[in-house]
Each structure stands twice: as C-alpha cells, then as structure tokens.
Amino acid sequence: MAPRTTRPVGTPTRGTTNPNRLRRMDRWIAAVHGPALRRSPEPPVAVDLGYGAAPWTAVELLARLRTADPRTRLYGIEIEPARVEAAKPYEHEGLSFLHGGFEVPVPGQVSLIRAANVLRQYDEEQVAAVWQRLCGRLAPGDPAGAGPGRYGGGLLVEGTCDEIGRRHVWVALDRGGPRTVTFATRLGSLDRPSDLAERLPKALIHRNVPGEPVHAFLRDFDRAWAAAAPYASLGARQRWIRAVRDLAADWPLTDGPRRWRQGEVTVRWEALAPRG
Ligand SMILES: C[S@@+](CC[C@H](N)C(=O)[O-])C[C@H]1O[C@@H](n2cnc3c(N)ncnc32)[C@H](O)[C@@H]1O
Fold first, then answer.
1. CATH 3.40.50.150 domain locations along the chain
2. What mean pLDDT is reported for the chain?
3. What's the fold here for domain 23-187?
4. Which of 110, 155, 234, 267 is deepest in the core (most CB within 10 A)?
C-alpha cells in the first residue's frame, strides 16, 4: 500500500486491552453477521479499529470471523504509530496492521468495522459524525434487507466493555445508521441488569437519566429481573431468560432465546435513541 500523505482522523487515547476481552462481541458478530459474510461474492474484509497497545483483539476477531467464513481478511487499524509497529510481528496471511483513523485507510468498502472502547474517550457530540464517517466505509446491501432492527450490507459495531469483558453494551449500524443496541454479560457477575449502565456506549451513557428511553429500559429490566427472582434457584441463565421474556412485552427486542441463553439481549435502536 502507498505511504499515507494525510493525518489519520481522530486522536490517540489510552491503549488498554486484554486477551479475550472482546469474545462476547466477537461471538455475536460471527453469529449475526456470518451469513452476510458468506454471501459476499468477494472475500470479506473486516477492520478492528483502535485495537490498542497489543494486537490480541484483532487476532481473535479474525479467528472467530473465519469460523463463519474462512475467506475473511482483517486489518487492525491504530492511530498511534508505535502500536502499529508493536503489532507488525503478528501479521500473517489475511491479517495486517495499519496506521490510520476514522477514515479507515483500506482499499474498497468493508464488510465489518468493529470499534471497541474507542469512542468512549471522545465527546458525545462527536459520535454522530464518527458514526456517519465509518458507516460510509461499509459495503452497501440490498435495501430491502435493511430497516429498523435489521441490517443490510456491511456492519459497524461500536461499543464498550469492562477490562476483562464481563459486561458489554454495543450499537450495531449499517450504511443507513444505527439499527440495534446489544447488552451482553457474564450472567454470574450481575447483581441486576442496570449494572451494565456503566458500560453504555458514548451515544447513550450520558442519557441514563430519568426521561430518557435508555433509563426507562434499564429500570424495566431491573423490575423484570426482580420479578424473576424465583428462577434464581435454577441459575442466573434461567433468571435472565425469564426477565428478558417479560421485557419483550414492552420493548422491541430483535433476538430470541438462543441469544438470551448467552447472557445477551438486543433491542431496536429507535426504542433507546436519545430524545432531542
Ligand atoms: C482503550 S483502547 C481499546 C483497545 C481494544 N479495542 C479493546 O477494546 O480492548 C482504544 C484505542 O483506540 C485507539 N484510537 C483512538 N482513536 C482512534 C481512531 N480515530 N482511529 C484508530 N484508533 C483510534 C487508541 O489509540 C487506543 O489504542
């Protein structure tokens, strides 16, 4: 690839990462986006944007995507040049590391961009423009296949988790904008669903206040969790599934028991989008 002549778009931030930290996100992406990867006539191209001080999350994302489609290639992109140098020895067939930012300096359009724990360190006001820019790098899909709660073409997954990946919240977007929000957790680690509030992505974390939809959602989730307390004797998984089933009466969930069993639940973006 030709040497770059312009500055990458964005700002270097702390590089904290950990092996296997993003496994829940990886598994969800492979399950939900795998069919779209396999349908791609060309080998799918994925990006791990802002992989941090060590390349683990990029290496792992590629391995998990290849279980869905062995043709997948992945670029790890970092805005901090020293982190690109540190990752280079880990390159192998189908895995490359590049210096860059939100412009995503790879040829053509991409099937997936994953940005985990990147926007958390930016301002809330910057999120919409960054999303728009990143969504513009995604491959278009069949417009008939996209819509509220459904994705078409390439996918952007942008979210946040704790240091060891027990608690995650992410937004999934396609070229048309945000489609869903997913909450994912190690069930044994949870006192109540609103524990996940501290991991809300930048677009939502400042909106967890009365009057905002995400606050109402977590309040209802806590109530459903409390009502499902008798199921705790069967294990946290059964309690979660029961609570999520109750939640589905009032909130537009897009997934079902197969994903709930993993300690996940996915909600249409429109239901949680900030007011105003
Ligand atoms: C907290 S680390 C997250 C590492 C990894 N994604 C994870 O979740 O474990 C955030 C990384 O994003 C990088 N970063 C911030 N803005 C970026 C941008 N615009 N483009 C590429 N990388 C960026 C930072 O330099 C930092 O290394």
1. 23-187
2. 95
3. Rossmann fold (3.40.50)
4. 155
Q: How far apart are the first and last CA of the chain?
A: 43
Q: Which atom of ligand 1 is nearest to the CA of 10?
A: 19
Distance 243 CA to ligand 1 centre (A): 34
pLDDT along the chain (276 residues), means of 10: 75 92 98 93 96 98 98 98 98 98 96 97 97 96 72 95 97 96 94 97 97 98 98 96 98 97 97 93
Summarised one tens digit per residue, pLDDT across range 191-231 is: 999 999 999 999 999 999 999 999 999 999 999 999 999 99
Residue to mutate, 59, 79, 127, 166, ligand 1, most ligand atoms under 8 Å from C-beta: 79
Nearest to 225 by CA among 255, 172, 183: 183
CA 120 remoteness from chain centre: 12
What is the C-alpha separation between 97 and 89, in angstroms, rounded?
10
SS3 state at 177: strand
pTM of the model: 0.96
Choose the residue to mutate in 74, 103, 118, 167 for probing ligand 1, maximizing ligand atoms within 8 Å of C-beta.
118
Kindly state the tokens that stand for 141: 């899909």
- Residue with the smallest CA separation from ligand 1 atom 4 is 52
Residues 6+ positions from 9 with CB-CB distance below 8 Å: 101, 102, 103, 133
CA of residue 204 relative to chain centroid, distance: 14
Distance 78 CA to ligand 1 centre (A): 6
At 141 the pLDDT is: 82
